[in-house]
Amino acid sequence: MQKAVTVSTDLIFSILADRHSVNILKAAFSGMRASSTNYVSNLSKKQFYVRLKRLSDAGLIEKRESFYRTTTFGSLVFHSQVRTMEEAISNYWQLKSIDVLRARNDFPVQEKETIVNEILCTADLKSLLNSTHLTGFSIIKNYDALVIEVLKLLENAEKEVYFATRYHQPNVSNKVFEKFGNGVLLHVLDGNPEQISVENRLNAIIRTPPNREASDLVSGILRSNRFDLKRLPTLPISFIVVDGNQVAYETVNYANPEQFTTAISKYDDVRLAQQFIQYFKQLSKDATVPRLLEQARSQVN
Q1: Which CATH architecture has domain 9-71?
Q2: Which of 85, 117, 240 is nearest to 169 (CA)?
Q3: Model confidence pLDDT, tens digit, residues 40-65
Q4: How far is CA 25 from CA 31, 47, 219, 226, 257, in A?
């Protein structure tokens, strides 16, 4: 049996250090036909497939139907490393000018920040700085970007997550359960429509488990005191708090409250995180514990 690859920072960076592997990753991000080897120049067929296998073993790409595509993990690596690095290099001198300006003592602080913001806007560097956490916050303008941001915050989770959600996204759900498996304490406030509520989705796995591993995971979640689930159909907004210092929350479109508009993500903001934890607890007072969870806990007791 083939030995599983241990994914580590060293492994990922060693892959990204090879320009041909990066080119394959780029092609897979857009969708690369499995039968084609012309996405990377100056490679023999054997050299191409050796790199393809290494990317696949590392969990960066996968074959879906007749295409190779980046996995959720691969998409995050592509956005956070490859694309960000390319944007940073193409704007190297603008970034250098910011360092030079901030080192000068003959400018008032407020004037410095005004000039820095003008440089960022002129060079279209705002999104680059936000994505690399050089600023204290990030503005998310579409739902796909929100999914990536939530996955990034969940990846950072080591201790405790408060998650109030009105949306269901499979990759986010999988990451939440993965974090539970890693020992993270989960508080979930479910505001999804009834047909796709967390309780109904968990119940579906119990009734028709896709495999033994999924069945055991759900049973363990329901019986664990590290999993707190409540239902609030009238949940006004979605938000997530990670380890008491990282927060992402959506802003409400009052013309159409059910539609996502924008969200804000704040890093290393303990005060704001505590405010949202208190908000979570306040909302939870009007929430109900799902029957499925009550039944599982009563069997344990």
Answers
A1: Orthogonal Bundle (1.10)
A2: 240
A3: 567 788 888 888 899 999 999 988 87
A4: 10, 15, 37, 37, 38
